[in-house]
From TrEMBL:
Protein name in UniProt: Uridine phosphorylase
Protein function: Catalyzes the reversible phosphorylytic cleavage of uridine to uracil and ribose-1-phosphate which can then be utilized as carbon and energy sources or in the rescue of pyrimidine bases for nucleotide synthesis. Shows broad substrate specificity and can also accept deoxyuridine and other analogous compounds.
BP-aspect Gene Ontology terms: nucleotide catabolic process; UMP salvage; uridine catabolic process
Cellular component GO terms, alphabetical: cytosol
Catalysed conversion reaction: uridine + phosphate = alpha-D-ribose 1-phosphate + uracil
Length: 328
């Protein structure tokens, strides 16, 4: 291990009850009279978190605000808690950083693009769930990705998030020192999601590793960025090496998502659709209507999982359509 680095493990003792409440790995919070969740425009001194969020059991997060609003409308209809055309207010309307929607036991939150953006959101989301005294929480990231060796439109349920060297870890610099955090995800939850996909039977779904990169272009071996100092042969060899290591898709958020959920004792999963096969190209060229349908697939799968978990699945398949939105 390099000087100044360390492996971190989830503390055995934390700020959590014996009933699967959220762990907070921060003793300083207990000394604060008020906790302001600045990027949500919410605070313990101005909002009653247990009343607002105490019944939450499922949290779905994704990059685009419009996609997460579409998801809450979809899941509301699926759970019989809303109807077509219903409007769902943005709980974070006091800020333009993130959007948050709620219906029944489901919270839907946007996280922006990349590790820094989702990291900020997760810090405040985890504290929100803790202050609300939520228990038995499942958090699922739903999104898009580039596939490796898969047909476009395939859905990948992440087994492990790996870095650009295919290691299942997140390296983060804290107080000038590199700490290494595990990026494994809940295996049982992944299998349950896979079973749900089989029951739906509408699209190809696999369990595989997801490579999380620091950018969209060079970090993912693209040839079409403003800067590219490698050739196509080197790119293809890198992607083939990734495939041989178990990687099936590439995105930019899963590593910190897995690491933070691990440290907080939260059951978590990542479910992303592939918009293209990176072994065949770099640019997303499918027609808009095709991409919209692809982007609905993780929502259908996770929606079915939530319905099944709540005992609301009475027949196979998904009965309602998701409102169509565009976005990356």
């Amino acid at each position: 291990m390099a000087p100044g680095s360390s492996n971190e493990k989830k503390p055995d003792d934390g700020q959590a009850s014996k009933e699967n409440f959220i762990h907070l790995c921060n003793p300083h919070l207990e000394k604060m009279k008020e906790d302001i969740l600045y990027h949500f425009a919410l605070g313990t001194g101005t909002h009653d978190f247990p009343t607002l969020f105490g019944d939450v059991k499922f949290v779905c997060v994704g990059g685009s605000p419009s996609r997460m609003k579409a998801f809450i409308a979809y899941i509301a209809e699926e759970l019989g808690l809303g109807s077509a055309g219903c409007d769902y207010p943005n709980i974070c309307a006091g800020t333009d950083r993130y959007a948050m929607y709620k219906v029944g036991p489901v919270l839907s939150v946007s996280h922006g693009m990349g590790i820094p953006s989702i990291s900020i959101m997760l810090h405040e989301l985890i504290k929100l769930l803790y202050h609300a005294k939520c228990s038995d929480i499942t958090i699922i990231r739903i999104g898009t990705s580039g596939g490796i060796g898969l047909e476009p439109g395939s859905v990948v349920i992440t087994r492990q998030s790996v870095d650009a060297t295919f290691k299942p870890q997140l390296e983060q610099v804290v107080l000038g020192k590199t700490v290494i955090r595990s990026t494994n995800l809940d295996e049982q939850l992944a299998q349950e999601l896979m079973q749900c996909s089989k029951e739906i039977g509408q699209f190809n779904t696999v369990i595989g590793n997801t490579m999380c990169t620091l950018d969209f272009y060079e970090g993912q071996g693209r040839l079409d960025g403003a800067i590219c100092l490698y050739d196509e042969e080197e790119k293809l060899q890198y992607l083939k090496n990734a495939y041989e290591s178990g990687v099936r898709n590439i995105e930019m958020e899963s590593s910190v998502f897995a690491a933070m959920c691990n440290l907080s004792g939260v059951k978590a999963a990542v479910v992303c659709v592939t918009l293209l096969n990176r072994l065949e190209g770099d640019q997303i060229s499918s027609p808009h209507d095709v991409l919209v349908e692809y982007q609905q697939r993780p929502q259908k799968l996770v929606g079915y999982f939530i319905k099944k978990s709540l005992g609301k699945v009475f027949c196979l398949g998904v009965t309602h359509s998701i409102p169509c939105v565009s976005g990356s």
